[in-house]
Amino acid sequence: MVIGQLFGIEQSAFWKKTFNTDLIYVFHSGIFMSVETLGALLRNGSRPRLSMDIDEVLGNTFENLLHVYNKANGTNFTIADNVSFDLQWMGLKSSAELIPYYINTWRSRHSDIKFLGNLRLLKALAGHYEIDLVTAGSHEHENLSSIDALRNWLKMHMLHEFPLVLCPPNTSKATLGYSVYVDDSPNLAKLIAGREDKVQLLVKGPWNKDYHRTDIKGIIPVDNVHHAVNLLIEAARREPRKLRAA
Length: 246
Known about the structure:
This protein is an alpha/beta fold and 246 residues long. It has two domains: 188 residues, 3-Layer(aba) Sandwich (Rossmann fold); 52 residues, no CATH class. It contains ten helices and six strands; from the N terminus they run ααααβαααβαββαββα.
């Protein structure tokens, strides 16, 4: 089955729109293998379990965190400075040093965190995938106020209908039993890359540029959450229809 047949399309317009590339290039890339995996998941008869990240995918948390950090430390970092996931560019010895600022961001500025998604499209996506909102953010158990703030933010944007999952400390999302991930984490991408049973739609940022390539099996780079959701909906709508007609 060629990739056009897989999605019930006879030409490359969808792929040009989705990946800004020609169909023949997609066919020879890691994206083809990733889409094959996605198609297999959709053919299993039940909705694939999907992990939807919150920070820097559904909400611009880090931009607000930098506001809190700069105010407390007299610095002037911007989101454009965020060039690595380990935060060494901030001069921190460990990302753990940023946890109090992360907690304070949710406590004091959750109403300023923009919702980057589209509720209508997310609900459409939920018709094809079993969606959980999964965060590995450091909402420690003793910081219930930050968890409450996160839940309030979800209610503000009518996202509270989706289950919220707090990833346990020192645990990768890759171990939580999901098949599809919409996430910006390069650490997660490192674990998903090469897998035949999982796919990560990697929301691109300068901190995960090593995975912007289209030749990595299991990784599909996307510009933003809209791009990811539209691709997943398109895949789900086309795959079953073509399968039934076969």
